[in-house]
Design brief:
Layout: E1 28-32, H1 41-51, E2 57-63, H2 69-78, E3 82-88, E4 108-115, H3 124-130
Parallel strand pairs: 1-2
Antiparallel strand pairs: 2-4, 3-4
């Protein structure tokens, strides 16, 4: 931890309004398996548009259990607003070592996204319009 910096972790249901006490002042937003259920990708996109502003980066680990269909659909949704790159997770994170209990994680991709234009933090008024 850098002096004056902190890490915050919270559960967020993106099918609901963004809680008013949350701000969009982050360096990174990190997620894992957030596109497992494809029924509410619009909600996830809305959350990303709120939190990923300025120089913030979004990193998402995606298990390719559906052959990449979910990831492809999600990338197509966010590309108008975000610069997106995807790459395979490093082998050491996929449980490819003998006896490793993470061997079920083959085919993991890491999506990285950053705003095309870097808007400033979202104000409370804009927050209410987006939710």
């Amino acid at each position: 931890r850098e002096e004056g910096r902190s890490i915050a972790v919270r559960t967020l249901n993106w099918s609901e309004a963004i809680p008013p006490d949350l701000t969009s002042d982050f360096d990174f937003v990190i997620g894992c398996d957030l596109i497992y259920d494809l029924t509410d990708l619009d909600g996830l996109l809305r959350v990303l548009q709120f939190f990923v502003v300025g120089d913030c980066e979004f990193h998402l680990a995606v298990n390719m259990r559906d052959g990449g269909a979910g990831l492809g659909r999600f990338v197509a949704m966010i590309e108008p607003d975000f610069i997106v790159s995807c790459s395979p997770a490093p082998a050491e994170t996929k449980g490819e070592s003998a006896g490793d209990d993470l061997s079920h994680c083959n085919g993991v991709e890491i999506l990285t996204a950053r705003r095309r234009s870097a808007p400033k933090s979202v104000s409370g008024m804009e927050r209410s319009l987006r939710t």
